[in-house]
What does this fold into?
Amino acid sequence: MSLREHALSLFHSAVGTVRPAPMLKRAVKLQGDGCPKLIVKGRAFPVKRNLYLVGFGKAVLGMAAAAEEILGDHLIRGIVSVPLGIQESLQRVGMQEMLLKPHSRIQVIEGAKNNLPDPEALRGAGAIQELARGLTADDLLLVLISGGGSALLPAPIPPILLEEKEKLTKMLASRGAAIQELNTVRKTLSLLKGGGLARLAYPAQVVSLILSDVIGDPLDIIASGPTAASSHNVQDCLQVLAKYNLLHSLPESVETVLSSSPTKRAAPEDYSHVCNVIIGSNALALDEAKRQAEGLGYVALILSAAVCGDIGHVAALYCQLIRLLCLGFAGLGEGPLGNEVRGNLLQLAAELDIPGLNLAEFLQALRGLGPEKPVCILAGGETTVQLRGTGKGGRNQELALRVGLGLHRAQGAEASSPLGKYEIIFLSGGTDGQDGPTGAAGAFCSPELVDEAFQEGLDAEAFLSNNDSYTFFSHFQRGRHLLVTGLTGTNVMDIQAVLMRPRDRA
It folds into this structure.
């Protein structure tokens, strides 16, 4: 098998382990003897045909299908807000287990085209709002949450219009705001986010099952925390807006809401009727990919499940890691060039400040690697892109193109670069199958990519300067380097893989 085939296999195995049905069945059981109880990660909740379900996110359809199978007749009614086209996409690839059965008690509303709030998502949020508002102390509300949930649960505080809130979010994203910052603003301007759904469902018991797509799995940030007490207030929102110079270009409706919002959220004890449980994460996906890589004969190492920060810096980090591995294989890792690359890596890591990353320890582990076995480095997280152009792309495709360009430059800068002695593949992909407003999940690259593209008349650097990575990869070798999976029905951020082996092993 080629490195590309191996990388694709690892990506699919990582995504497979965080598919909704197996995760949900591991976390939730219905105990039927005597007084029926819903057992969630060891905690028991009595059920007596009083169970309601709502959900929102890219992975929620499969979660809802698995939940309905577990709950049976105890489920009275449900509503889920899911991405536009997901039912058709799952049906097309034969993933019937992630679709609701005929005559399901769960209503499906599709919306948020290209992962952006729209009138259909607004309709879904309104239906969820009405269901939650009608619950009593005798009811149990099961809430299914995954990445993409924020766009699928838009409920702006009046008089803010959806278009106004969306325009503000787009402006923040285009200026490089991180997902945590975006969600801080979204929560402040929403009826349902920032614990709003849990407050609305009171006094019903609320049990949330959460598939995390945020670094560190913070409950109040995932899908903007609809069932978690917010750790932010209006002052935090104002700080984010000030950071990106947007305070003086706010719509009048947003100014009205911000000026009348309380400076403190409700105290955490107000959420005693809520049980929030994380059932899946990026780290779980990476562990499975590592296991599969080792099965394929690789020495596999996980760099981090929390890679974040500016995409240019992250691309440089991967390029320097690949260079260091090549130098180490060639017996030059401890020489002047190896020390220089190691110093560059430590400086980049300090600038990126990736949570929990001990790069010095990771680099120590690399010292023991030799060329006799192929190497696989795995990582996950979510980078940020500052938009400067008008092209079409996504952070994974842009990261792959930047790594390809970085490796090309490194090869050109060193007279006898060891990069050419090894097969190298870099893959970056979104586990939800959608990278930005494109039809791809991500892309592959190699050190040869830039030269090969130039022979086709494609200037990688020019495409990058216009944030046009999707157009580049679509044209280059007729899209062969695009990672196209279709919507996967799950979402735990992005996964990156570096695969390397000596060329004579091909």
